Amino acid sequence: MNYSIKKILFEIKDYILITFGLFLYTFGWTGFLLPEEITTGGVTGIAALIFFGYKIPVAVSYVTINVTLLILAIKIIGFQFCIRTIFGVTVTASLLSVLQSVITEPIINNQPFMSCVIGGMLCGIGVGIVFTHNGSTGGTDIIAAIVNKYREISMGRTLLYCDVLIISSSYLLFHSIEKIVFGLATMVIMTYMCDMVINGIRQSIQILIFSEKYEEIADHINKDINRGVTILEGMGWYSKQPKKVICVLAKRSESVSIFRTVKSIDPNAFISQSNVVGVYGEGFDKIKA
Question: What is the pTM (predicted TM-score) of this model?
Fold first, then answer.
């Protein structure tokens, strides 16, 4: 099985797992949060507020807002960024539409706190799975990416500001501080569970690869993953033979792609991965004084 076929199979696996993650996310929303009128962040939170106020189905508002944001993103960021986002938005909208028509009663009656905890856990795990496999749920992710392109504001901070603003807006509908507290608690639970799944996926790592097929591996990492590669000179002390060592600095989210690339080319390669405190320069953080 050649490299291109394996790459296609990995892509198919990614899309299957992204779909599963989106199912968990939408099930947590429609089964636990929506029946208790608990609002969280993101476009789904905005769509929920519209549903609570005007009874417009969540899927309709969700698609309308995301299509508008996607048009902006395609013009500003580029189509490549939006491919998986379009897939994520389409699947999420479809699942929201189906599950909202199927789940008409709260799964847990008169237990808003338990609904908040379980719903937040399901949503967080689902989003974590989606992010781990390079997917996107769209929505405020797009806003954060656009802001991050023009301003030195991290995507995480932009998402936090958007989510707090959306959750706080629920007071205009319900006039209840309790609803805001539940919404913020759900956001914290979602964030924690998402971090647990992706295990600090946005951190930087250093990978050392020892393989006789170092040239082929280095070419694929350079061209397919768009990461710089450095070849180090080494020597095996037992064999006393010269060895080439591939050194790669990458984002943790790219580690899966790098490992897949190495495994596809040389299953017997020896790989060492380690966390780094900070990486500064092109493709990473700006050098800080």
Answer: 0.69
